[in-house]
Amino acid sequence: MSDREILIAELKKLSSRALQAKMDLHDLSEELPVNWTSIMAVAERAHDAYAELERRSQDLKALEKA
């Protein structure tokens, strides 16, 4: 596999992980005030997932420009 193909496969996994984190955050918000103590942990997972997805997306754009 080429670097581009590997990166695209990784982006698909990261996108799925980010979507799951988003849904977890959404589900938590609907259950409030139950489990309110987990807000920061769930939000941090969602933030980290989307940050990594954005970084790797930028890597793909840079690779495609080169």
From TrEMBL:
Residues 11-63 form a coiled coil. It holds the Pfam family Rop-like. This is Rop-like protein. It comes from Bradyrhizobium macuxiense. InterPro entries: Helix_hairpin_bin_sf, Put_N_fixation. It comes from the Bacteria. The keyword Coiled coil applies. Transmembrane segments: none annotated. Keywords: Coiled coil, Nitrogen fixation. The keyword Calcium does not apply. Belongs to the UPF0437 family. Signal peptide: none annotated.
